[in-house]
Amino acid sequence: MAFAASATWEIHAIMSPNNAPSGQPESSSGQFDLYDLTVVVEAIEGNCTCNMAVGDHFHLRGGKLSLPEGQDFCVYALQATLPLLPAKQRLNHPADWMESDARVSCPDPACRLIMRIDRTQLRTFQHDDVSPIPWESIRDSRQAPPTS
């Protein structure tokens, strides 16, 4: 039980009174910011059988991933980055490890490919452009008094 209480305190400690993450104010207009990301192969310290090269990269803009024309990217290296990308797109609490750590390794131990996730540009999105659930219905339900 002590762990649960501690975990609850930590969650509330990094939230503002309106439940928006610290550093990302709640927007009554339904706008929010995400970073564009570039994931770059920084080093290959082993034998990469997927013919990756230092400097190979892909981009993430909003929810869309793109590669430079004519370039491919190892699916195993790519899948190692995917769980981290949505968190890297967002401004997190300054003490969050997502703000300081930026390297990911390919899961192939013989390859030892290291990728770096770079934030490149901050973009503003409109909720209704990226979700089928209207912002008005969410905003109205968040402003309603809690029921007991």
Polypeptide structure, described:
The structure is a single chain. With 148 residues, this protein is α+β, with helices and mostly antiparallel strands. The protein has a domain at 29-124. Helix content is 28%, strand content 26%. The protein is built from 6 helices and 5 strands; from the N terminus they run H-E-E-E-H-H-H-E-E-H-H. The radius of gyration is 19 Å and the shape is elongated.
Count of individual beta strands: 5
Q: How many strands, which pairing sense, and closed or not: the largest β-sheet?
A: 5 strands, antiparallel
Proportion of strand residues:
25-35%
SSE string, helices as H and strands as E: HEEEHHHEEHH
Which structural class should the secondary elements be placed in?
alpha+beta
Low-confidence stretches: 1-23
Tertiary shape = elongated
Q: Strand order of the main beta sheet, please?
A: 3-2-1-5-4
How would you sum up this structure in a few lines?
This protein has helices at about 1-15, 75-80, 85-90, 95-100, 125-130, 135-145; strands at about 30-45, 55-60, 65, 105, 115-125.
Q: What key phrases describe this protein's structure?
A:
5-stranded antiparallel β-sheet, alpha+beta, 148 residues
Give the arrangement of secondary structure elements:
Layout (H helix, E strand, L loop, with lengths): L1 H12 L17 E14 L12 E5 L2 E3 L8 H7 L3 H5 L7 H4 L2 E3 L7 E14 H4 L4 H9 L5
Antiparallel strand pairs: 1-2, 1-5, 2-3, 4-5
